[in-house]
Design goal:
Shape: globular
Largest sheet: 3 strands, mixed
Order of helices and strands: HHHEHEEHHH
CATH topology: Zincin-like
Helix content: 40-55%
Radius of gyration: 16 Å
Length: 138
């Protein structure tokens, strides 16, 4: 049986999407200027959604019981060729409800987890694979 601090669950379930978006915005605002500029130059949008769609889950091959906290969709700049044109901007999605559930289950802090997920997805934009991110603690 998992014991969850009731006050934490009440606090987290009461967070609005706008408040959660502000957590994400703070992480982006705190990026070193060079990284922020590279994201802007790389034409990357960051959006907050309540949950991933079925299509997003299928795209990453997420099976039953898999929790998707964030998703990078795009082509890292280092992998772009001269034929890279007329494409939609890269997109980073951050999923509010799965992150809140993860924090409730693990006891991890919400702001810290949001920061970790946002940085993880930004790292994918810069071409860093999951295996290396796990080695780095992300």
């Amino acid at each position: 049986m998992v014991s969850i601090d009731a006050a934490k669950v009440i606090w987290m379930s009461g967070m609005t999407l706008r408040e959660f978006e502000e957590l994400v915005a703070r992480v982006l605002d705190d990026l070193p200027p060079d990284f922020a500029r590279k994201l802007d130059e790389g034409n990357v949008g960051v959006v907050v959604k309540d949950q991933p769609t079925e299509e997003e889950l299928r795209q990453v091959g997420a099976g039953p019981g898999t929790t998707l906290l964030g998703l990078y969709q795009g082509v890292p700049p280092a992998r772009r060729t001269i034929h890279y044109s007329l494409v939609l901007p890269d997109n980073i999605s951050i999923y509010k409800e799965p992150i809140e559930r993860f924090c409730a289950e693990t006891g991890d802090g919400l702001p810290e987890t949001v920061r970790k997920v946002v940085l993880h997805e930004i790292a994918h934009h810069f071409g860093i694979p999951d295996k290396r991110l796990r080695e780095l603690g992300y």
